[in-house]
Amino acid sequence: MHSRSSFPPSGSGASTPGQPFDGDVAVPVSVLNRAISTALERSFPLVWVAGEVSNFTRAASGHWYFSIKDAQAQMRCVMFRGRAQYAEFTPREGDKIEVRALVTMYEPRGELQLNVEAVRRTGLGRLYEAFLRLKAQLEAEGLFDADNKRPLPTHPRAIGIVTSLQAAALRDVLTTLARRAPHIPVIVYPAPVQGAGASERLAAMIEAANARREVDVLIVCRGGGSIEDLWAFNEEGLARAIAASELPIVSGVGHETDVTIADFAADVRAPTPTGAAELVSPQRTMLLRELDHRVATLARGFGRLMERRAQQLDWLARRLVSPAERLRRQRALLEQLQARLAAAGSRPVRDARARFALVQAHWQRWRPDFGVHRQTLDGFARRLEHGLARQHERHAAKVAMLGARLEVLSPQRTLERGYAALLDAQTGRAIRSPSALKRDRRLTVHLAEGAADISLADVQPRLTDGF
After folding, report:
1. What parts of the sequence cross the membrane (predicted)?
2. Which of 89, 52, 101, 106 lies closest to 74, judged by CA?
């Protein structure tokens, strides 16, 4: 039994990875292509593919479209702008290249293609891998350690150049040195910079320069080129010769973007041969300007020194006096000190008396006058006594008035005028209405001279408006 793949129903959108397809259900072409594209991307990892460029096109968007082929087959390729802008070169028809790509499908057309991430010329990959291996080996040995780097001389007596006599870089270096430091002699150690045996000849010239001791610094340089052209500077022998050199070496190989093993082994890497010449040569104009500044500084310093010495001489001349004059001055000083001593002895007493007089004056000024204060207090006492008497009189009159009014409104006075007050004997409440008088109800009668408890036998209530 073998399993069957199935697709999701039509109109259901993208297929779900890993979902079995039902062979009896029709699916859209887009869903099938998407499933195939997903399977391709998962099945094929990033891989380097070698071939010849064909039908290369750069779109207005910046994307690259081309085919890569060999004698038996070809494959369409696309390299999007985001990656194409970092490519070191633009492929042309017939170029032998290697691309690092992912196998995908262009779903709208159902075409198989390579999604290219990087591109390089055929053969450069192996050279670059050899470059990386040698770099890692020498770095592990400590050949590139910063602690081993030698400082460049500030003012070299002579400059050596290791390069080819026919190299354009030599002319650039010589022109720069003649412009910046025409006073410094230059010695060229000729050696080929490209081809078989170039690395050994370069290393031999570096060793010869160290043996002769004619220069203070070496420049190893050549112009730009491909990785094959610069490969002599990636050889192990040359790197070890540079590292073993007792003379400081500046590497100026290729352009700023070119990097070689010699750059890592050298004491200083310059971006170009011209830059290497600028690093090792002090600028003559700046030296002359600095020299003029030093001369002016020295002249100003010498002038200030002479001024200080003349001032010191005048001061010493003023101090140079005869013994008689010195005795006279010392006698005058002694008299002055004696007068100051006498004044200093009497001054504390005088100051103390002045302070005492000042304190006494302040005390007399602020001494309290008890007679005046006593009179003031007596006046306050009389006023207080008079005020209290008047207040007592007012309160007594007010109490008498309130007593009279209270006496007028007293219930006892009302009873004395012939009235009586009837109260319920049980509740003690006043009887106000004839209707409250009931038979056999006990009452308490309050009269002017006492009270009596009574009981009603016959009650005939009668309502009137008054007496």
Report:
1. none
2. 52
Q: Give the model confidence (pLDDT) of 48-104 as tens digits.
A: 899 999 999 999 999 999 999 998 999 999 999 999 998 878 888 888 888 999 999
Tell me the mean pLDDT in the region 1-6. Answer: 38
Name which residue leads in pLDDT, 356 or 16: 356
The Cα 324–Cα 411 span in angstroms is 130
The Cα 99–Cα 84 span in angstroms is: 12
pLDDT of residue 20: 53
Q: Three-class SS string for the chain?
A: CCCCCCECCCCCCCCCCCCCCECCCCCCHHHHHHHHHHHHHHHCCCEEEEEEEEEEEECCCCCEEEEEECCCCEEEEEECHHHHCCCCCCCCCCCEEEEEEEEEEECCCCEEEEEEEEEEECCHHHHHHHHHHHHHHHHHCCCCCHHHCCCCCCCCCCEEEEECCCCHHHHHHHHHHHHHCCCCCEEEEECCCCCCCHHHHHHHHHHHHHHHCCCCEEEEEECCCCCCCCHHHHCHHHHHHHHHCCCCEEEEECCCCCCCHHHHHCCEECCCHHHHHHHHCCCHHHHHHHHHHHHHHHHHHHHHHHHHHHHHHHHHHHHCCCHHHHHHHHHHHHHHHHHHHHHHHHHHHHHHHHHHHHHHHHHHHHCCCHHHHHHHHHHHHHHHHHHHHHHHHHHHHHHHHHHHHHHHCCHHHHHHCCCCEEEECCCCCECCCHHHCCCCCEEEEEECCEEEEEECCCCCCCCCCCC
Asked if residue 9 has pLDDT above 80, the reply is no
Q: In what order do the strands lie in the sheet with 450-455?
A: 421-424, 442-447, 450-455
- In DSSP terms, 99 is beta-bridged to 49, 119
Q: Cα separation of 222 and 172, whole Å? A: 10
